[in-house]
Design brief:
about 240 residues; alpha/beta; Rossmann fold; two-stranded antiparallel ribbon; 6 helices; hydrolase activity
Length: about 240
């Protein structure tokens, strides 16, 4: 497996992705990986490598800026990094679309076959990528925030998959229902898989704060990744 860091920009903001792929004679589909609220750290990079092991190019994108990271358990720091983008969805869309452009320009990538996946805050990011009308085949939100911002949506061209913990206090049932109504009205090809007795951040073994609503679930993680594999097989 080949791994490397890749510099790219959103306007004047320098960004740094982590790219992983296995050597091959032909170009591969691209899967963008959007990080949680703590930034493009080990968890996102490991996910990019997992994508590479499936035969794709994994591109762990950067929403915060080169060298800018949060930390596990530091809600104040992570919120200070996430909230400006969560509150300005137009800026968020520009940032995640910059990653799409950079990923498509990688020589090993088949630029027609592109998907995006994201965790928590990253789930919000890939859903906004879809809402921006980006030409991607599919997006996957993994325990992501489903609520939209106040910007106008473009026609959704990608298939949409949401993997959700039913007990997630950050995404209550009414938010899920509103999202389903939004996707239906948009005539999107959408799926929501909800896992019972499952809270936020269920794929992250470092998540261990029941009072905050983040709890790792080995069962939900295995189920969600199998669904992810099936989804990527379908769209590619």
């Amino acid at each position: 497996m080949i791994t490397r860091h890749l510099d790219y920009h959103d306007g004047v903001t320098p960004l740094e992705a982590y790219v992983a792929y296995e050597e091959a004679d032909s170009q591969k589909p691209l899967v963008l990986v959007a990080h949680d609220w703590s930034g493009r750290r080990e968890f996102a990079c490991n996910a990019a490598e997992k994508i590479a092991s499936m035969g794709y190019v994994g591109f762990a994108l950067d929403m915060y800026g080169k060298g800018v990271f949060g930390a596990d358990g530091d809600a104040a720091l992570n919120s200070s990094l996430m909230n400006p983008l969560a509150e300005d969805r137009a800026a968020l869309r520009r940032r995640v679309n910059a990653a799409l452009v950079a990923g498509r320009n990688i020589p090993q990538v088949d630029a027609v076959k592109v998907a995006a996946m994201g965790y928590c805050f990253g789930g919000m990011c890939v859903l906004e990528l879809a809402r921006s009308g980006a030409e991607v085949l599919g997006v996957v939100s993994i325990h992501g925030i489903l609520a939209p911002g106040n910007v106008v949506n473009e026609a959704i061209k990608s298939k949409v998959l949401c993997l959700h913990g039913h007990e997630d206090p950050m995404v209550p049932p009414e938010q899920v229902l509103a999202f389903e109504a939004e996707m239906t009205e948009a005539e999107a090809d959408w799926q929501v898989h909800a896992y019972g007795q499952t809270m936020h951040a269920f794929t992250n073994p470092a998540a261990n704060n029941p009072d905050f609503g983040t709890v790792y679930s080995e069962v939900a993680e295995k189920r969600s990744y199998q669904t992810l594999v099936n989804f990527l097989n379908e769209i590619f």
